Amino acid sequence: MKTPQLSPQVQLGRLISGSLSEGLLVRLDCNIDLETIKTGKFVSVVGKSYRFFSLITDLKLEISNPDAMLFLPDGHETVLHEMVRQREMYAVAKIKPMLILNQKNQMEPVKTIPNHFAPVVNVDEAEVALIFGKEDGKSAFFCIGYPLDMQTPVCVDLDRFCERSSGIFGKTGTGKTFITRLLLAGIMRYSKTVCLIFDMHSEYGLQARQEGQNKNFVKGLKTLFPQKTAIFSLDPDSTRRRGGMPDVNLQIPYSAISVGDILSLQSELNLHSTAMEAAYLIFAKYKEQWLVKLLEQTGDLKDFANGVGAHPESISALYRKLKRLERLPFLVAHSASKFNVIDQMMEYIDRGISIIIEFGNYTSSFVYLLIANIITRRIHSAYIAKSEQFLGSQQAGDEPNKLIIVIEEAHKFLNPTAAQQTIFGNIAREMRKYYVSLLIVDQRPSGIDDEVLSQIGTKIIAQLNDEKDLAAVLNGSSNGAGLRTVLASLNSSQQALVIGHAIPMPVVIQTRRYDEQFYQSLGGQFNQAQIKNAMDELF
Q: Which end of the chain, N or C, is more open, meaning fewer C-beta atoms within 10 Å of its C-beta?
């Protein structure tokens, strides 16, 4: 068999031992500057028949003769120091093969290991493009960043990314929102998938402040794709103050709020189970008008409680907790139509237009959970109906657009209790059965139900410090222990580990910059004068 051609990069070392399950050990060449070798670095082992693409997961200093350490040379004894270094000391890198390239340039899973003394080399640009694809403006390959110490694009296959639910994880300040906005821009540009974004802090629509020392403004998705994006605002005044006009002022009648929506807020409202039982009794009598009937009560609630067969104290507790809904102006007791905002949303989605739901100044967890549950439950029901219609007719025109629902603070929707009660747990487990998937953004993956995490197809993981979060986010991943070491060494911002369905092998990346050059790559005609004018109008 013909040996794969060596890449022109410098040889790093040779393979000395290891196993398929625990990883391989590489003795680094003595002329290699050890401080240039970092965990997460992308390397390849050149075998007789295959090229083994691997990640460095650990580094270790070794000595061949312990006696050499009894009398350490002084700093000025450079010749003696060099002799000892070359003869008695060496460094070992632990690597984990992630992918095999055969002689036909086909990718295969790792099922074997190379021989002793196989050379380990840097990966060149052609190999990175071969593994991760190339962004050409036509296919669904989208550059998300660059390998460490390289400027060669690492691309995500957006078609595969949208096939299953995905997650972006990292502690506060690591750039989760910017990575999310980057991916959503790629999806809107190169994919036919439509997005429904619950924008808790108004960071995706018009513009947002850049994190880090440079606090410039960056463009939002509505600014980049005005014809592909619509803003539904719970706080139209806030949207206008930030220089935009909402496409739809979002109003939700009480009749659209089900008992299930309140059940998902049980911990937020501190509601006892008996109060929830009372809610079901009210619904049994008044159906969709259950909340209207409850909140219009005044004075003593005993007669109302007796009328529905509930305990007065349970009704009273439920009444007190839900009375706060009347302070939210986007919730209305009566509406001219039966929650037509969902029909409006479906019209936009059917036309391939993504929707950003802006919360403005209503950024409490209570409001976010309530609105996300109400809308998602009904959108999902509409998608079930459209999917069944398509399965029945088998007509291409009836096939619904793929939909990704983007939620932040995902652990509040998908914790072990909520995942069994809310619609989001169902969507995560369905794996696109009804053309709907999730993109969850969260800083506490340990708070998410294990079953839901196991269904996440692609994970983009920024720095995490908590041991529980590290264990949870890598649960089910091959070589989780090695990847955990890699995660622990990430910078606090602009670095991430990408693993899963949309990428051939795990890789550590320096994330792509979200700037003027990126805007131009999307095909937009943006210049500095337009940016300045927009900022002048805003302030």
A: C
